[in-house]
Amino acid sequence: MSALTFQAWSGAHQNRFEDVLRNVLPSADVAPERLHAAMRYSVLDGGKRVRPLLAFAAGELAGADVSRVNFAAAAVELIHAYSLVHDDMPCMDDDVLRRGKPTCHVQFDEATALLVGDALQSLAFQLLAEHSLTDDPARQLQMLKLLAAASGSRGMAGGQAIDLESVGKQLTLPELEFMHIHKTGALIRAAVLLGAYCSAALDDVKLNRLNRFSKCVGLAFQVVDDVLDSEADTATLGKTAGKDADNDKPTYVTLLGVQAAKKMAAELHVEALDALAGFGEEARRLRELANFIVLRKY
Amino acid sequence: MSALTFQAWSGAHQNRFEDVLRNVLPSADVAPERLHAAMRYSVLDGGKRVRPLLAFAAGELAGADVSRVNFAAAAVELIHAYSLVHDDMPCMDDDVLRRGKPTCHVQFDEATALLVGDALQSLAFQLLAEHSLTDDPARQLQMLKLLAAASGSRGMAGGQAIDLESVGKQLTLPELEFMHIHKTGALIRAAVLLGAYCSAALDDVKLNRLNRFSKCVGLAFQVVDDVLDSEADTATLGKTAGKDADNDKPTYVTLLGVQAAKKMAAELHVEALDALAGFGEEARRLRELANFIVLRKY
What we know:
The structure is a homodimer. By secondary structure, chain A is an all-alpha fold.
């Protein structure tokens, strides 16, 4: 698909990936029907699918079979979706709108939202365990470990915990970075690396470049999110705007100001592209995704 | 340890296993400290460790290395512990007492309890992925798939969802069984099979016997739980007694009456032992666990 524009490439993957998600999620006809309907509601028809696109782009760079990357991308997206469902609950961010729709606990109920998140997490690991993602099962176990570590208390869930503790506090820039490297960065890194690991073609030097790229992109993603949250309106974002400042949560904008936050995003953008300098045309989609993540308006 | 009484055998494993759990849980000195403290609070120093004991007993039957079974048992117990933390939350059972201590959301807060459950689930899969549980990584992937399926929407989380929907309803006996086969049975079955899978010694005939045993024990466990809940007091149970009936939840006792429920437990006990009839002394601990599960008073 190298002749396609980025828009055509990402649109094609997004459409195709929606079918992948439809197929891996249990049918709403299967008991427990309401739980399965709520799982599908929370995952399908929403989001930019940035993490799956990163997995597909890294998979293309590595020459991985897209039918394998599908499951890696789906696993990462299910973890992301579960975290949004739990994060929106009243005991966390108490949000009523997500991706332009009522959040899961509003559309269903809190107990169902709790179980939706729990079951989506299980399903993510089930996908990585039951499908052949590489020719080497030992390598596949490493992929499972990577996703579990990225999701857990020293990854995404840990970042959420630090986020909770930070409400009303003045964080330093390193503390804010530490929080976001866990909360957002860990899963974005996992998306890139899991896509690449579906092929055995990359040596450690190349994987290290991808690792560096993914860290810069993960942090840039959050800085841009903070800028957009401070500037955009709710209709454009598809979620409640200005919430972080309202909730007295530290952000790159509250800490640095909007101009310095934009400058930081631009520097991370340069560093992400620099990490890919040793690659040629095969890294095109990753470069385009870095551009998209930093330059997006929603 | 075949010369030990059951009490001595189980006590030795319980003590030893507590150290296993202490070691696999992140230290409360590591950031995010409060989350890690809450994870340790929710898992350590509590419970009869029935699922780990089943894994150890099945591992002994199969001749598995106990250092491998440790991680399988810990993974199952972490899934169980996460389900209790989430189940106790206000949007689910809203319980304040568990294992004689304040529940996680009471001792810490609701948001932390939510993240504790999420992070414990990730950690369970991380353990199964990062430690060598068998000589065959492909077999280990099967073990991960088994635990993920037992935990998810067609396993434990699905059973919880059916449980939620059943409040105030008159279920039939098959419906009640369907609920408990998912809610309690799936994880008990996983404990037995994962313990056995740590060795490659058992053929399909023997594994099928264990499968049948685990299903009977899983259901018996729940029937006995319902009987105890209807008869015991809160101090003996270490959790709020009489809750299910108070919450208008169908149980084996409300459906069958206490005498018929006891008869059902006794029949499942006989069937569980019958499933082990083809084994000799090597199944001793599994037989003793079946006896313990059915005859326990708390």
